[in-house]
Design goal:
This protein has 148 residues and is α+β, with helices and mostly antiparallel strands. Helices cover 38% and strands 11% of the residues. The chain contains five helices and eight strands; from the N terminus they run αββαββαββαββα. It has helices spanning 7-15, 35-46, 63-73, 92-103, 120-131, and strands spanning 23-24, 31-32, 51-52, 59-60, 80-81, 88-89, 108-109, 116-117. It has a two-stranded antiparallel ribbon with strand order 1-2.
Length: 148
Amino acid sequence: LFTTFSLSGLKRHMKKHSHDKPHQCHICLKAFRTLSLLHNHLNTHTGTKPHKCNECDMAFVTVGELSRHKRYKHTLEKPFKCSICNYCSVEASKLKRHIRSHTGERPYSCTVCSYASRDTYKLKRHMVTHSGTSPTVLRGHRCSIHSW
């Protein structure tokens, strides 16, 4: 399920379910739901990496890649600390997943069998055993498209 606190966030999420991809790459004809996804894709063709790190010589296609790089390479601070062991992380989501190793919580369940996982990646990998393809797994706000 997907969680959001804003209508714009829900609308943005619902676009992911749309098969409408009006933005087409003029080089390879691949189509995209949003203009920003097309721009990022075009940068992969041209080799353009407009998002430059101000602390080293690295540059990235997307601002998300730059942000992730800075968190992992240029900060020693890991503010998200496990209260049970010495684990700490630069990302809250990583700590949340780690805590499940202590609690045994497995919130991502297979719709075909009894398999359940602590994280979406492992469920997606598992789903391939049933269908050969991996589904999109979301949690939180009740999206009308996702029933699991």
